[in-house]
Specification:
The complex is a heterodimer.
Chain A (H helix, E strand, L loop, with lengths): L3 E11 L5 E11 L3 E5 L6 H9 L6 E6 L2 E2 L4 H6 L1 E4 L11 H11 L6 H10 L15 H13 L5 E5 L7 H17 L2 E5 L3 H7 L2 E6 L2 E7 H8 L1 E8 L15 E3 L5 E7 L7 H11 L3 E8 L2 H12 L1
Parallel strand pairs in A: 3-8, 3-9, 6-7, 7-8
Antiparallel strand pairs in A: 1-2, 1-4, 4-5, 9-10, 11-13, 11-14, 12-13
Helix pairs in contact in A: 3-5
Chain B lengths: L2 H17 L1 H23 L11 H32 L3 H4 L5 H30 L7 H25 L3 H21 L8 H7 L3 H14 L6 H25 L6
Helix pairs in contact in B: 1-5, 2-3, 2-5, 3-5, 3-6, 3-7, 3-9, 5-6, 6-7, 6-9, 6-10, 7-9, 9-10
The chains are: A alpha/beta, B mainly alpha.
Chain lengths: 309, 253
């Protein structure tokens, strides 16, 4: 069995308008992982997903899904994919159950009512199975789209901005389902604007901008490598200026004079946390609390995008 | 061959019609009844027989063709245009199905609906006029070929159209006038000689003529020519659909 469920090799795509959506993209997604693809609007996320799923023609390069070429062996490749699109693209006049039966059939699977029931129950849709989709709320319609994407038991599930405009309850249900799918071995690839979501559930993160993959890394490693840390010291008595012992260190005094902040990068030679704490001790400043804070993925993301400009 | 996919598309398209029975079935049956009342009974009673057939009976094949051509074209075009318009087409395009299977599903369903419609009209006609079918097998052959051919035309229109107005242009502005002028309500021998020649450029003449022959054994043009014409249309539309999927025209970028 291929270790990489998705293998994108030197993929470029130029639209007839001349817009270069992807430039020499290389990306490997491991079987069973949750991969988050982050990027601003127009970065190329949807084009990349659409090419893998067969909705947009490949420009140059090659895409393999489970070892099958998405062009030459499209049947084997597409069978493994489930796609939840960004838009609520659905036949609103159809009934929930009928649309599920359709989705399973069109992906070449024999009807399996028990499995479809399981999916609908997992997404709290079972009670709505006889409902016409047009009468469902936006959140419910999105659940139906997810259920449809899972109807043929795909190996890999694409969620294109799945939580845009979705309420907290659905978001929670969705992540619960994602976790369940991961336990079954389903690979999940999601694009999102909610970076904290990627931070919460993804194993690996890829950042894309202007059609180029800027970096792909394990979430932990990424945050370790690129994440900045802050040492925050709460003082018992306010100060207005730094004592002489702390000269040579870049420390910021808080507005109330009762906090000192020191920025550093973990595992770097510029990390002088020990020296700072020793100097504080020498200066006689009394501390009431010590805290460290790690920069969020969002801060890393923004700084990477700024660097790429 | 992905039979499950063909079945899924086919059945879902048929379900779509059952969801709107008034539009799909009642409306064409009602309009056909009106044609029979006005042309068959009211005007027809004042008309002489054409080729030994009463006027009421004479117009049956023409009326079926008129309804089948217009309904099939608009129905099939709607079937593919709606998912394109709503974006729901992404599912079929990302599924492990070939272009051929997609076409079989959509066109097969549209053609089936048209055949059912033709049968309903035939039954409705029985309420108004007495008629018999001389060559029922030929009648079915002509009907099936016409339904498939014009379902393909509808499919093409649905793929090419980029707005609801454009979707209606061909069925309303081309198919309906051609069907009306294709000998639906008259034999082309009733026209002045010049118009008889002009009318031969109307492809529908051959469809109506062949179909009417299967009912009463009389035709405006030869049976072979009618068959050749319908086959030519079938092949032409097939080639066009093949080209659409080969190039991704209006389907994929």
């Amino acid at each position: 069995m291929e270790n990489h469920i998705i293998d994108v090799r030197n993929l470029s795509k130029q639209y007839p308008s001349g817009f270069q959506a992807l430039k020499q993209v290389n990306l490997q997604i491991k079987r069973g992982e949750i991969f988050a693809l982050l990027g601003p609007n127009g970065a190329g996320k949807t084009t990349l997903i659409s090419i893998i799923c067969g909705l947009v023609n490949v420009g140059e390069g090659q895409v393999l899904v489970g070892g099958y070429d998405v062009v030459k062996q499209y049947r084997q490749a597409r069978k493994q994919i489930g796609l939840v699109p960004q838009e609520l693209a659905i036949d609103v006049f159809a009934f929930v159950w009928d649309t599920m039966v359709f989705s399973r059939g069109v992906f070449g699977k024999p009807r399996d009512d028990a499995y479809l029931e399981e999916i609908l129950r997992a997404l709290s849709l079972w009670d709505k199975r006889r409902a016409k989709i047009q009468f469902l709320s936006g959140g419910m319609k999105r659940r139906v789209l997810i259920a449809k994407a899972l109807a043929h038991e795909p190996e890999v599930l694409f969620l294109d901005e799945p939580t845009a405009g979705v309420d907290v309850e659905l978001r929670r249900d969705m992540w619960r389902l994602v976790e369940k799918l991961r336990q079954r071995g389903t690979t999940i690839i999601l694009t999102t604007h909610y970076i904290e979501e990627a931070e919460e559930i993804a194993d690996r993160i890829g950042i894309i901008n202007h059609g180029e993959i800027l970096l792909v890394d394990n979430k932990q490693d990424l945050m370790k490598k690129l994440g900045r840390k802050q040492l925050i010291l709460q003082l018992q008595h306010p100060i207005t200026q730094l004592p002489g012992e702390l000269n040579g260190f870049v420390l910021h005094i808080g507005q109330d004079g009762k906090t000192l902040t020191y920025d550093y990068v973990d595992n770097q030679p510029t990390n002088h946390v020990t020296e700072v704490l020793a100097a504080i001790h020498r200066s006689g400043i009394e501390l009431s609390d010590v805290q460290t804070k790690q920069s969020t993925l969002e801060q890393i993301f923004v700084s990477l995008l700024e660097e790429s400009k | 061959m992905n039979w499950y996919a063909i079945k899924a598309i086919y059945l879902s398209e048929l379900h779509r019609s059952w969801r709107t029975p008034l539009q799909s079935i009642a409306s064409p049956v009602l309009s056909t009844s009106l044609y029979f009342i006005v042309f068959g009974s009211a005007i027809g009673s004042a008309m002489t027989e054409i080729g030994g057939v009463s006027y009421g009976a004479f117009i049956i094949p023409g009326l079926i063709m008129l309804m089948v051509l217009t309904e099939t074209t608009s129905n099939a075009s709607f079937g593919i245009y709606m998912p394109k318009w709503s974006g729901a087409i992404y599912e079929v395009l990302s599924a492990p199905v070939s272009a051929f299977e997609i076409v079989v599903g959509y066109v097969g369903a549209a053609a089936t609906k048209s055949i059912i419609l033709a049968m309903l009209i035939l039954l409705t006609a029985k309420l108004f006029v007495d008629y018999s079918i001389l060559h029922p097998l030929w009648m079915m052959l002509f009907l099936v070929l016409t339904c498939i051919t014009f379902s393909m035309l509808g499919f093409i229109l649905g793929v090419v159209a980029d707005g609801f107005e454009k979707l209606q242009v061909i069925p309303l502005m081309v198919v309906t006038p051609l069907a009306f002028l294709g000998g639906t309500f008259y034999s082309i021998s009733m026209l002045p000689e010049f118009w008889q020649k002009v009318t031969l450029f109307n492809p529908v003449v051959y469809l109506v003529s062949g179909f009417r022959w299967s009912f009463y054994g009389t035709a405006d043009v030869s049976l072979t020519f009618s068959l050749m014409m319908i086959t030519a249309f079938l092949i032409m539309f097939m080639m066009f659909i093949w080209w659409i999927f080969k190039t991704g025209y209006k389907v994929k970028v």
